[in-house]
Amino acid sequence: MTTPQWVKDLKPAAPQGSELLEQERSKSKINVDTLSAFLHSREGLARKRRVLKILENDKVFNKEQNYFAGRIDRFETALARAKKLRQLVIRHGWDNDDRMVANELISEPGPYGLHESMFLITLRDQGSPEQHERFLKQAEKYKYIGCYAQTELGHGSNVRGLETTATWNTEDQTFTIDSPTLTASKWWIGSLGRTANHAVVMAQLIINGKSHGPHPFVVQIRDMSTHEPLKDIHIGDIGPKFGYNTMDNGFLLFNKVKVPHISMLARHSRVDPKTNKYVKPSSPSLVFGTLTWVRSTIVMQAGGVLARGVTIATRYCAFQDRDAPSDAGGENQVLNYTTVQIRLLPLLATTFALHFTGKAMMALYGASQKKMSQDVGKVGGPERGAGPEETHSGSDLLADLHATSCGLKSLASYTAVEGLEVCRRACGGHGYSSFSGIGSWYADYLPTATWEGDNYMLTQQVARYLLKSARSVLKGNEPSNDTTAILANFLARQDQGAAFDVLGNDADIVAAYAWRSAFLTFEALKHRDEQKKAWNDLLVDFYRLSRAHSQYMVVKNFYETLQSPPSDLDPETLGVLHKLFRLYALHTLESEASEFYTSSAVTVRQIQLARTSAVMKLLQDIRPHAVRLVDSWDFPDWQLDSSLGRYDGKVYEDMFHRASELNPLNRITVDPYPDSPTLFKKNEAGALKPKL
Amino acid sequence: MTTPQWVKDLKPAAPQGSELLEQERSKSKINVDTLSAFLHSREGLARKRRVLKILENDKVFNKEQNYFAGRIDRFETALARAKKLRQLVIRHGWDNDDRMVANELISEPGPYGLHESMFLITLRDQGSPEQHERFLKQAEKYKYIGCYAQTELGHGSNVRGLETTATWNTEDQTFTIDSPTLTASKWWIGSLGRTANHAVVMAQLIINGKSHGPHPFVVQIRDMSTHEPLKDIHIGDIGPKFGYNTMDNGFLLFNKVKVPHISMLARHSRVDPKTNKYVKPSSPSLVFGTLTWVRSTIVMQAGGVLARGVTIATRYCAFQDRDAPSDAGGENQVLNYTTVQIRLLPLLATTFALHFTGKAMMALYGASQKKMSQDVGKVGGPERGAGPEETHSGSDLLADLHATSCGLKSLASYTAVEGLEVCRRACGGHGYSSFSGIGSWYADYLPTATWEGDNYMLTQQVARYLLKSARSVLKGNEPSNDTTAILANFLARQDQGAAFDVLGNDADIVAAYAWRSAFLTFEALKHRDEQKKAWNDLLVDFYRLSRAHSQYMVVKNFYETLQSPPSDLDPETLGVLHKLFRLYALHTLESEASEFYTSSAVTVRQIQLARTSAVMKLLQDIRPHAVRLVDSWDFPDWQLDSSLGRYDGKVYEDMFHRASELNPLNRITVDPYPDSPTLFKKNEAGALKPKL
């Protein structure tokens, strides 16, 4: 649609968004540059700039039609982008970090996603040298494009329940891959629907009528030249989803398809073709830690995921409320309303809390891997969702990390999901427009709350670990890690009671969180061991316990990060970070008030004071720094793709441009009358539409 | 895509969904038929069946491609449906209730939506007899198809801030409609983007340089034969949204467009063309109650909106958890997990709570209108969003209803929004598929939390009213309605303290909610009147106060509804409804624990018992009735359009059918290799796509 000149001449009414954001930035002395470097490192920032420059100059990555395009167009465009990205990797010699940064900037799941993660990783880690030669080399050259086919229509998290079978045929030394039921259909498999020509298929290995549990098989599924499914294989895309629609999640069924002996990935276990016997994996502990790593990265990313929404909402809420009563005296920026502050500023604090916690987790993971490899020999890279995971190591550090990663994955992804919706709604009516940039981001992120362990299911693992730790402490064992230390401390002090000065002392805040977590642990233990309650009857308590313990971890990590800040961080910025710590901790404390007072960690009076005075004061103190704080997250406009979150504040101009000039719906003219003989006068192509 | 025969022959692994749901239904004696009639009335149920039969046999209403279609197709189909529905109304002589039921069954916002509500209503209520003749007649015949253009790009809820002007021209007795800035552009206007040829435009009336505030003008905006925008008018669709994409929300700008004197709707105020003077509205109280009515309907609908999600999730969660450890002994239906029960069953209780509350509100509204019309003469019908609303009536009943409708609209729509997401997630991975039917329903419902009063803004009105009531009670005035009665009761008893037996006595639960609401009211009053805190500093307290008071209203209405149940309701069913009441009330109580104990309405011990014992026991008691309870909401499968929520439990078959046979993405074959010369081998039409 052409925008007439008289419309192009119009300006938004004063004050302009650009002026408002300029004012905001002039009111705070936060050093955005230093804080950005603290969050992302100088090297990370430089990498982002370098990659961004290449992407934004390539028209295949042009985002203008992203919000308008339908499913098929979005998928086709995403595939074109994936191909181009692969070409850029080769042309510019990008390393893995460069590619990850590019994906973050593009900000949509791509059809090569599972090829480049699970398919390659599984071939690498679970393939024998012969299989590396046969499969991995082709996959690394993108001749074989693969996916990781585990989940089935009837089965999600537990691989032991999978129905797909791989039966060893003694007579010709092959496997028959089969889907005996409809629920055995592979389902949700990323990159499978339209893209992959190979799959790693998790199937129950059956030898001589005996099942040996799920094992990975490399299976060709499409013809290498026509790309049509092979005979007796039924494949397709599973259809549209709430988000993630640039990805072709697929289904896959086998009608007794024979594959050769080499198809079964044989690094850990295999079938001996001479004896027709199953050879067990030599060291089950090798697969330890894979999901722990994945969960740690989810915690790490959750801060940044949420920060996108907070950036958009904070910048937009720095706008004036043009609907405010005129007696507001010019001071009517939306961000000045306490009902807006109470929603956005604790979330702003949360972005930092999660980021620092994720960083600490990754560091801990690195340390534990080092220790592990000393303990049990070389450990493979992370295997996303690859096989059952149990705690085999004797190391308390590792068990602690495993439990922590479960609880924090649940808390962090839940917090990011909920927070993004809060940000979207804080933008008022315009938050509902796709141009806000929050809705699609939220929708694409949502599955994180389900995959790599459902957020509810995971909390049982945390509780199980805490109960075990509590039993150990009750037996009088010496504390061997932080968890047993806080449990022992609680036991030692519980008769004296707690008197934490949460309003006056930051270390006491951390102690109060530890106290509450320990209290809930011993309560749960009492229900379980003394009152002999059924496990299922305690799931709700366990969920709360996991949440409490994870919040303790976040508060503790945030606190500790600020104890040793980088030397170039100025006192003003560090001071604001301290306030963000207190806001996160006290706001969470008062939101979860009843657990805190029930445990006697704090008094009812302290909670009331936290609510009515401490938190409100912190909101007021942090308010002037809000825009600079989100600036320090350093999201380029190109990445955010948001009218409301633009760095320059040209919100209305951008919304209008997209609606008036980019919107393809405005290219059709309809016949609106109910009794018209044809339904539509013309569509995009100028053709008449048939009556439905 | 063709599904091969060997796939068609596959069945889901046992047990079949149909068997599981049959078992569920056999385990409860709830009388679904009687309970449905209690919820919807026999007449309402018969109406639904009659309308459904017609719709589901008409191919324009076929829903098969709804989840797959892109924006343009969805809009065009929705328009075709709107036209057809209009034809059906005429052919079958449907009344307004029939049409509303049809819209509920179709379940998508349609392009005639604003024509059939705000446009017609505004013409009718605000037009003079001459204008009825000139505009309304044409509109009722769908010759004029209209919209209601109030909101602007820079202005939402407050009409006083609108920038569009209508300047009276003395010389030729016309008005000039103008958009002086970009932010003056009308925005979000339903049915405007592509459909309407007329608009009611709210614009600042200016006579002789003096502004008289916003007034409604009827303006032709598109040519009656070409349907192109008229000269100096720029119109378009505002682009895609998080939901509501079957509706063409539009923008509209005027470049000094002249309209005749008759354009200004003149029933209440007008410009006298002889004297060029503004003639004030004779009775401002006429517009009272319009938004109150709209808000009451939102409360009324919220129960049913949520019930769709609860129906889908409850039926699907009656399935077995195929991932459960095998030692679960067959008792592994997802709905047996307490972590699932604690999410779904309180929401199931909430659907009834909101429904009964909405019914009570509508009855109260009817009574108040009757009283009003006795007080001030004839009152017009509801005017959706039409103009400012103030409390002009001296009747305490009416003021109470106004405040209640604000608070309940906020609580009910928030609860439905949040609850739908909980239901979607309770469905696990498959909840993310569009075929769950929850995602799109949630996305379409979301704006309800913003329109007709932002859910946060509204709570100020509740607080203002409660403070006023408290001041009146403190002065010693006799209680004149329920609100002043509970405030007076609190004052009289506060020194004795409360001792509500919330665990043993249902009336005491209601009293505890009243107590907490009164306590928070006097706390807020102290902050405001004694401590002289600024209004803005109290917004968070006000939000909490409004929420508390609204929860009291819901609990009270649910309780009272069950005190006089319909005579044909059997004791078993009534007994379960009582349990649902207790579940809603006690679960909410323990979720909001800190306000209850701070107010001394209950003790810490009572809250602990509510949490760990009463609520858990209620979950257990209600569990066997869950499926029959959702059945009683009586959603036809055609309406739900959900694989997971099917009445017959054929979940896997339906998901597979949609993915394998209906999914258009499966009609394209791509070239997946990164260095291929062409990007795609063929698309739907068999054509090569150009390189992006």
Automatic annotation (TrEMBL), chains A, B:
Residues 507-671 form the Acyl-CoA oxidase C-terminal domain. Pathway: Lipid metabolism; peroxisomal fatty acid beta-oxidation. The active site is at E452. FAD binds at T151, G190. Residues 288-467 form the Acyl-CoA oxidase C-alpha1 domain. GO terms for molecular function: acyl-CoA oxidase activity; ATP binding; FAD binding; fatty acid binding. One of its GO terms (cellular component) is peroxisome. It catalyses: a 2,3-saturated acyl-CoA + O2 = a (2E)-enoyl-CoA + H2O2. Pfam families: ACOX, ACOX_C_alpha1, Acyl-CoA_dh_M, Acyl-CoA_ox_N. Its cofactor is FAD. Residues 31-145 form the Acyl-coenzyme A oxidase N-terminal domain. It is found in: Peroxisome. GO terms for biological process: fatty acid beta-oxidation using acyl-CoA oxidase; lipid homeostasis. InterPro entries: ACOX_C_alpha1 (IPR055060), Acyl-CoA_ox_N (IPR029320), Acyl-CoA_Oxase/DH_mid-dom (IPR006091), Acyl-CoA_Oxase/DH_mid-dom_sf (IPR046373), Acyl-CoA_oxidase (IPR012258), Acyl-CoA_oxidase_C (IPR002655), AcylCo_DH-like_C (IPR036250), AcylCoA_DH/ox_N_sf (IPR037069). Residues 147-257 form the Acyl-CoA oxidase/dehydrogenase middle domain. Keywords: ATP-binding, FAD, Fatty acid metabolism, Flavoprotein, Lipid metabolism, Nucleotide-binding, Oxidoreductase, Peroxisome. Belongs to the acyl-CoA oxidase family. This is Acyl-coenzyme A oxidase. It comes from Recurvomyces mirabilis.
